[in-house]
Design goal:
With about 800 residues, the protein is mainly beta. It has two domains: about 130 residues, Phage tail protein beta-alpha-beta fold (3-Layer(bab) Sandwich); about 525 residues, Maltoporin, Chain A, CATH 2.40.170. The strands form seven sheets. The chain has a 22-stranded antiparallel β-barrel. The protein has a five-stranded mixed beta sheet with strand order 3-4-2-1-5. A five-stranded mixed beta sheet has the order 8-14-15-12-13. Strand 16 and strand 17 form a beta hairpin.
Length: about 800
């Protein structure tokens, strides 16, 4: 259901009750504000608890977005019945009013009257707007401004109450920017940059200066055995993208200290709705996508959503093969009782992409090639398939205890015929190349069980989350190599034959992880809140190496924790501070045959979250330091082995501004300054900057929609992303320059069910390197492009 203004409509004689509702609701968190504190879908406490009937109806309005009309005299001295979970609107109201002697009448799609059986709808009424519909951590956001998140706590919690920086990119931003990949969404978040594409297979990111090669979907980490996701994530089934800044190991287990990316999928709705969109643009881009959602039975206890997208593109680089992608999502939600919810999801993706390592650095430490230059062959490609199925069950045992279990199975297959760049000959233009035929097959089973307890001790409230997790992953890897003809980077001649390669790697790797975790969210008062958490992970890793020496087994564990505090001197302001740990087991071995110690890290952070405009515009600022140690480096005595003496540090300042300035005027903006360097290493110089990390970066995107008049329905938008210079590798042997990219859009709502839009990207046609990885791998940014869209809703 779309978000609507919520109002209580009452006769003039009933203004006293309305005044009581509007003035007392901020002071009654267990009553009128309960829908905001414990919104729809949250296990562990009623979304509308037992309370005075007037307060319950106000909470119902916040949950559903419907207007509720009532005569004050009908509500006096009456109490409601609790609603435990989200049902159809009529069932929710019937539950609330049971035994009160009252009934309800549905006037239109947005208004409900609370009446006795003999009530006449012809009586005069006055409408007073009270508040807007409630947001949940798992559902849509009203515009750009998110207020709830589960990424930082695995519970539905207000962002202002979490002592850690979290940024949310909602669906409306994705729609306005026509985001199709994860990088399109994350360019709106401070201190996040693309760190690589694994040869145009997927996207990995730097968060706060450190690589975050994997991410989570609906709070469950993707396959932990692979160093990167299987393929590009398509946005058709994504509701919002969230970034938890800093270490997340105390909640999610193994991971990098910079932060965690969590993708929230689009959930089924209780009312039927859908849309279909066709797009066409520069460089042979074509795309079609659609989603449909709604109830699957009469009482709406079973709902579903299906989404899909087809995309094809020639690309801006010459002599590359065509890109194709197909994505499908199925979501089912079953709520057999007030106390139980079952979610089922199935995701499938298939992509065929040209394999591409980008551009190379010349001997003068500069890149002289055009962004359109391709140094591979047309037959060099990647075929990637990924399937994921998950079941999530929640059951509320009582008002204070909820149980949750999650089971997710993933399967991925990737076959690439890649061409890697080795080195330039002494003439500075002839590039030596190597062909590799790689096949990866991976499987991952993740099982989690947790309990959530709401408890009070004296005047202190606790939300205690505890649980266990087991992950079992398997990777089969085969690789064969051969030399192919060199190529002139300035005057390329294509047509090298596909050679017969020689096997160079063949192994099966298995990783099992068992984990226990506990977290307590503590409310000392309306002003002071705290969060503490501990987690223990034990890792068993073994490799069956069929070519070469066997990799040693890993049997190791780590205890990680975090602690944070929030002080709220006034309603709009939250001041927070935190400490958090991270750990990541490593592959490889030392010359003595022993396994490498896990990489570890820690962070200290402080910041302010400030609602500049209540429920509309928020500013988050943060200062932090992250230290990562046991960093793997090549053994200077034998580069076939590794050592763990490296230490790296990032200090930074961030700002994120998001929300609505005036009706129709939305903004999302970010800025970051990072000092990322090596502080100890036996191979690289101390003081060297970390690669692909700009000292400064910023972004701005804003739209304005005309709400009335002859131009009503016209939306204009524009944005800019600016990134400073970056070192290309740990040796700091070369530097790629900073860049900016200017985008714009115009959209028009032709009718309630039809809209048109036109987007322009990199309008000034900047020639820049978007992502440096090494001297032989640098990915250029796309030239100027135009994209047109036609969207139908129903």
């Amino acid at each position: 259901m779309s978000n609507r203004n919520i109002a209580f409509c009452i006769k003039p004689s009933a203004l006293i009750v309305m005044s009581a509702l509007t003035t007392l609701s901020p002071a009654l968190p267990s009553y009128a504000n309960q829908a905001e504190i414990n919104p729809v879908g949250k296990a562990g406490k009623s979304i509308i608890p037992y309370q005075p009937l007037a307060n319950a109806l106000l909470a119902f309005s916040k949950v559903t977005g419907l207007q509720v009309s009532a005569d004050a005299s009908l509500l006096t001295d009456k109490m409601s019945n609790p609603v435990i979970t989200n049902l159809s609107h009529d069932v929710m109201l019937t539950t609330i009013l049971k035994g009160s002697g009252l009934d309800f009448k549905i006037i239109n799609n947005s208004t409900v009257l609370i009446v006795p059986s003999t009530f006449s709808t012809s009586e005069p009424m006055e409408t007073i707007v009270v508040t807007k519909s409630a947001e949940t951590a798992y559902g849509p956001v009203d515009g750009y401004h998110a207020t709830q998140s589960a990424t930082g706590t695995k519970t539905d919690t207000a962002l202002r109450d979490i002592p850690q920086s979290i940024q949310v990119v909602p669906r409306q931003v994705l729609n306005d920017q026509q985001a199709k990949n994860l990088s399109d969404a994350l360019k709106n978040v401070s201190a996040v940059q693309v760190s690589g594409t694994a040869g145009n297979r997927t996207e990995t990111f730097n968060v706060r200066g450190f690589s975050s090669p994997s991410y989570a979907i609906d709070g469950v980490m993707l396959n932990s055995i692979s160093g990167r996701p299987a393929n590009f994530i398509d946005m058709v089934g994504v509701e919002r993208v969230e970034v938890l800044k800093g270490p997340a190991s105390a909640l999610y287990g193994r991971g990098e200290p910079g932060g965690l990316i969590n993708i929230i999928t689009r959930q089924p709705t209780y009312d039927f709705k859908g849309d279909a969109q066709i797009q066409a643009g520069s460089f042979g881009f074509w795309r079609g996508e659609s989603t449909m959602s709604g109830p699957l039975n009469n009482d709406r206890t079973l709902t579903g959503r299906i989404s899909g997208a087809l995309q094809t593109e020639d690309g801006f680089q010459q002599h590359r093969s065509r890109s194709e992608r197909q994505t499908g999502n199925l979501m089912l939600k079953w709520e057999p009782t007030l106390y139980t919810r079952v979610n089922f999801s199935h995701y499938q993706n298939h992509q065929e992409m040209p394999f591409d390592r980008g551009l190379v650095v010349s001997d003068d430490n500069r890149i002289h090639l055009s962004a359109k230059r391709y140094l591979g062959e047309e037959w060099s490609s990647i075929d990637s398939r990924n399937t994921s199925t998950a079941v999530d069950i929640e059951h509320e045992v009582s008002e204070t205890l909820a149980l949750r279990s999650t089971l997710r199975y993933e399967k991925a297959y990737t076959h690439d015929t890649g061409i890697d760049y080795r080195s330039l000959y002494s003439d500075g233009r002839t590039l030596q190349r190597r062909y590799t035929d790689r096949i990866e097959r991976s499987q991952n089973l993740d099982a989690q069980f947790s309990t959530l307890i709401d408890a009070s001790t004296s005047a202190i409230d606790h939300k205690l989350l505890s649980g266990m997790q087991y992950t079992n992953s398997r990777l089969v890897f085969n690789s064969a190599r051969a030399k192919i003809a060199s190529i002139d980077i300035f005057d390329p001649v294509y047509g090298a034959n596909l050679p017969i390669p020689t096997p160079n790697s063949d192994f099966t790797q298995r990783i099992r992880v068992g984990s226990l975790f506990i977290q307590d969210q503590i409310n000392f008062s309306s002003q002071w809140k705290a969060l503490v958490g501990l987690r223990y992970d034990h890792v068993w890793q073994e490799t069956d190496q069929r070519i070469g020496n066997a990799t040693p087994k890993i049997n190791d564990g780590a205890l990680t924790g975090r602690a944070g505090v929030v002080y709220q001197p006034s309603v709009p302001i939250s001041i927070y501070a935190n400490y958090a740990d991270s750990f990541t087991p490593q592959s490889g071995q030392q010359r003595n045959g022993k396994a490498l110690e896990p990489e570890k890290g820690w962070q200290i952070e402080s910041g302010i979250k400030w609602d500049l405009l209540p429920d509309a515009l928020s500013l988050t600022t943060a200062v932090f330091q992250i230290t990562k140690f046991n960093v793997k480096a090549a053994d200077p005595n034998d580069t076939d082995y590794s050592i763990t003496t490296g230490k790296q540090r990032v200090r930074g300042i961030e700002m994120d501004l998001v929300g609505k300035i005036t009706p129709g005027w939305n903004i999302i903006a970010s800025a970051a300054w990072l000092d990322a360097l090596i502080t100890r290493d036996e191979h690289y110089a101390v003081g060297n900057k970390l690669p692909s990390v700009p000292a400064w970066s910023s972004s701005l995107w804003t739209t304005y929609e005309i709400k009335s008049g002859r131009l009503s329905g016209l939306k204009l938008g524009s944005g800019i992303q600016a990134v400073g210079a970056r070192k290309g590798d740990l040796e700091n042997g070369y530097v790629v320059g900073g860049f900016y990219s200017l985008d714009t859009m115009i959209a028009y709502q032709v009718s309630p069910n039809l809209s048109l839009s036109l987007h322009g990207k990199n309008l000034t046609n900047q020639n820049y390197i978007a992502t440096p990885v090494s001297r032989m791998e640098n990915y250029p940014g796309a030239p100027r492009s135009v994209l047109g869209s036609l969207k139908v809703t129903f």
